[in-house]
């Protein structure tokens, strides 16, 4: 296990990058504690797999350094970094038994047979595949093959980090939650540093203690799942995380206050900064139908099971609210009240209102 530090890391796939737009990864400084569970979250093309490949040693960064326990490993090849990696498609040997697949990384390093047997059985029990140990891997279902692939990454007790690159992509949706739960359980048992790359917010938020949200090669926020939901520091985070995502509403700022379609909107605290595109951010969960609030007209109501999503219009601005009560009818005139301590101002995408003290 290792603490992982990234220092002034940048990468371009061009030989001679000349502008910030030439970089697939902008400057990144990160510190991940030994034994933590982390996720890199973002849409396709945001740079998360590039970053993972740099950490693993499959890709050399254009600039900056990677440190494991304060030791610079930037120039070390993958086999000298003591890293285990689990990919989208299970990497196992179909002609081998499950036991031999799990044992292979240990035997390859000359681990004594009794130690191999002990460790394989420990991991098999954690994965709940003990009864499969003598079966050939070729006959396993896709989810069990991915379990074995995970086990191959976890069986060594000398790894610095286990990295997962979209490991549930090929798994049937109804089985994904089982593997997500199993992976979280495994981390709690083995306490090895884990980094999980995904575009799926549910996977990231249920697995990780801390999530790194990326957009266009830039880290826009690092935080716990609760922090990302309750106080996104960038409108991208607010929109990307949550279902539905945060309402991002056009705002006029004057006299120290924010206005939406001419209506004053109380914010969480003082507005900071001056020039720039200003927007109000408030999650649908923090808007309620009330006798007081901003006048709106219901455009559509969607029943999503435990609650309903109301889509309404305030002037020509669309806004969504979540309610567990009986929803209003389409076309009905209503008023929407924003929870003040969850209503924030963003300038050029970045949080600019201060939390009330």
From TrEMBL:
<dbReference type="InterPro" id="IPR008995">
    <property type="entry name" value="Mo/tungstate-bd_C_term_dom"/>
</dbReference>
<dbReference type="Pfam" id="PF00005">
    <property type="entry name" value="ABC_tran"/>
</dbReference>
<dbReference type="InterPro" id="IPR047641">
    <property type="entry name" value="ABC_transpr_MalK/UgpC-like"/>
</dbReference>
<keyword id="KW-0547">Nucleotide-binding</keyword>
<dbReference type="InterPro" id="IPR015853">
    <property type="entry name" value="ABC_transpr_FbpC"/>
</dbReference>
<dbReference type="GO" id="GO:0016887">
    <property type="term" value="F:ATP hydrolysis activity"/>
</dbReference>
<keyword id="KW-0067">ATP-binding</keyword>
<dbReference type="GO" id="GO:0055052">
    <property type="term" value="C:ATP-binding cassette (ABC) transporter complex, substrate-binding subunit-containing"/>
</dbReference>
<dbReference type="InterPro" id="IPR003439">
    <property type="entry name" value="ABC_transporter-like_ATP-bd"/>
</dbReference>
<comment type="similarity">
    <text>Belongs to the ABC transporter superfamily.</text>
</comment>
<dbReference type="InterPro" id="IPR013611">
    <property type="entry name" value="Transp-assoc_OB_typ2"/>
</dbReference>
<keyword id="KW-0472">Membrane</keyword>
<dbReference type="GO" id="GO:0005524">
    <property type="term" value="F:ATP binding"/>
</dbReference>
<dbReference type="InterPro" id="IPR003593">
    <property type="entry name" value="AAA+_ATPase"/>
</dbReference>
<dbReference type="Pfam" id="PF08402">
    <property type="entry name" value="TOBE_2"/>
</dbReference>
<dbReference type="GO" id="GO:0015408">
    <property type="term" value="F:ABC-type ferric iron transporter activity"/>
</dbReference>
<feature type="domain" description="ABC transporter">
    <location>
        <begin position="9"/>
        <end position="241"/>
    </location>
</feature>
<dbReference type="InterPro" id="IPR027417">
    <property type="entry name" value="P-loop_NTPase"/>
</dbReference>
<keyword id="KW-1003">Cell membrane</keyword>
<dbReference type="InterPro" id="IPR012340">
    <property type="entry name" value="NA-bd_OB-fold"/>
</dbReference>
<keyword id="KW-0813">Transport</keyword>
<protein>
    <submittedName>
        <fullName>Carbohydrate ABC transporter ATP-binding protein, CUT1 family</fullName>
    </submittedName>
</protein>
